[in-house]
User: Which sequence fits this backbone?
């Protein structure tokens, strides 16, 4: 597989630093240099448009004419975009480019960031050579300089190629946009051994955001280090602003303007958050890896799944961001989708139960219980031939509906956490006992029961006497630590689970 420059077995990673400058401030300080830059932009864009359309339509005379005009009007260090042998050549994929709506292309000026080229950094300033001994000096913040040095250290000892893109559009705000692009080339990373590498699985959920699972194989089983969840920015403020605009337009106050602003407020484009979240995941992965290889998989839903959702553009843009970061750091990454509603132990359909902050899936056939965000990760482990982090939970003797907080079971005083009759006996509990956790069994030392049919929290060694702080204690928990969450006792079944299928 070749990259854009035609090199086989090589991948390219990019990092971009964007700086903006006000043209009004630059005109007050360097008026002649700014006027020369605007003139250079007009000449360059006209020649680039002629070259592009001649290439696309197969007109050899037009290509030669564009190159002759570039030789006469554009300085030598800005003409590399027309040289097919230069890495700065801008028209590699002319036929694949979308057809522009305007004849004059809004292409940026591109040049290498080097002391002997058209742009270079000197004592914390970005200097642009404009031809005719004209220079435009742009200040660079210290934070930006530190960022550039940090990115170079990340990929050392590889060489980092730096280029500068200068963008200016007269029809928009009078702002000069400068981008410093860092590019690194490295051999395509091989697939590491799953038993020796750090395993990172990122589930891109259409409703909740990103869930990243970091795990590794210790020789006998898979250990999960952390499950990091990243949620997109809150849309509440945008929706409130849009509602105010729509209400003002409905009352006749500038309807065209307010309706347009309402549509802009409701538009959700969090590409900046996507890049930040992806960078945070890669940074966390290298923290856990400690020099080992990293094997990463992104479970991205299809376009049909997230169509017409407010996260559509956000979720579908993560693939390009992840590929670029993987090429930059040299990480082997895959993009495979796995089921989230099938049991990884017996492949039966799972039932989903919701708590306040967590979605839990339960298999009625084998009793497997796990958080929904980890179900695709378990399927990925099966694909890699690794054992699950822990064996499936024991099946419950009663109907799984009891785990949903059935009112009749609670009113009848039944314990929703029974034991499997075929399960091994616990200490102090005979085989097949359905005594809830915390209750006294034959031969066991009596201790405070966190759950009892009467709803009383008992003193150690004094069954039947209510605890003085029983009303302020935490909710009762079952064997798995979550089944009774959401209810304080069996006598108060008002707070119930919500179950979805």
Assistant:
């Amino acid at each position: 597989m070749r990259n854009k420059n035609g090199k086989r077995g090589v991948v390219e990673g990019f990092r971009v630093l964007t700086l903006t400058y006000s043209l009004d401030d630059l005109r007050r300080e360097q008026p002649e240099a700014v006027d020369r830059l605007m003139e250079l932009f007009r000449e360059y864009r006209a020649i680039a448009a002629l070259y592009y359309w001649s290439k696309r339509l197969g007109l050899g005379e037009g290509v030669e004419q564009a190159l002759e005009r570039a030789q006469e009007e554009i300085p030598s260090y800005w003409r590399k975009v027309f040289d097919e042998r230069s890495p700065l050549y801008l028209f590699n994929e002319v036929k694949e480019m979308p057809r522009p709506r305007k004849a004059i292309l809004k292409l940026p000026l591109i040049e290498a960031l080097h002391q002997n080229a058209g742009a270079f950094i000197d004592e914390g300033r970005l200097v642009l050579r404009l031809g005719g001994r004209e220079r435009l000096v742009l200040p660079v913040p210290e934070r930006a300089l530190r960022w550039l040095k940090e990115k170079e250290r990340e990929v050392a000892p590889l060489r980092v190629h730096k280029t500068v893109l200068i963008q200016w559009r007269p029809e928009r705000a009078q702002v000069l946009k400068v981008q410093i692009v860092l590019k690194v080339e490295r051999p395509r990373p091989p697939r590491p051994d799953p038993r020796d590498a750090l395993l990172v699985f990122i589930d891109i959920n259409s409703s909740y955001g990103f869930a990243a699972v970091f795990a590794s194989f210790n020789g006998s089983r898979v250990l999960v280090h952390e499950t990091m969840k990243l949620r997109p920015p809150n849309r509440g403020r945008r929706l409130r602003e849009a509602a105010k605009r729509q209400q003002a337009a409905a009352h006749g106050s500038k309807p065209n303007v307010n309706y347009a602003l309402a549509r802009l407020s409701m538009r959700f484009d969090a590409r900046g958050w996507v890049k930040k979240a992806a960078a945070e995941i890669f940074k966390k992965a290298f923290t856990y890896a400690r020099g080992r290889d990293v094997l990463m998989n992104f479970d991205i839903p299809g376009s049909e799944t997230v169509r017409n959702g407010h996260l559509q553009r956000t979720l579908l843009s993560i693939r390009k961001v992840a590929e670029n970061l993987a090429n930059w750091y040299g990480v082997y990454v895959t993009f495979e989708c796995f089921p989230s509603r099938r049991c990884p132990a017996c492949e039966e359909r799972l039932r989903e139960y919701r708590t306040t902050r967590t979605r839990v899936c339960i298999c009625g056939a084998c009793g497997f219980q796990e958080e929904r965000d980890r179900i695709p990760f378990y399927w990925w482990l099966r694909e890699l031939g690794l054992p699950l982090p822990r064996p499936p939970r024991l099946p419950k003797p009663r109907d799984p509906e009891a785990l949903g907080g059935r009112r009749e079971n609670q009113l009848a005083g039944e314990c929703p956490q029974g034991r499997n009759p075929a399960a091994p006996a616990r200490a102090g509990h005979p085989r097949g006992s359905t005594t809830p956790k915390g209750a006294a069994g034959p031969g066991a030392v009596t201790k405070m029961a966190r759950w009892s049919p009467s709803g009383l929290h008992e003193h150690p060694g004094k069954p039947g006497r209510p605890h003085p702080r029983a009303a302020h204690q935490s909710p009762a928990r079952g064997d798995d630590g979550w089944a009774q969450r959401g209810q304080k006792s069996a006598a108060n079944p008002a707070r119930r689970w919500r179950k979805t299928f």
Summary: The longest strand covers residues 10-22.
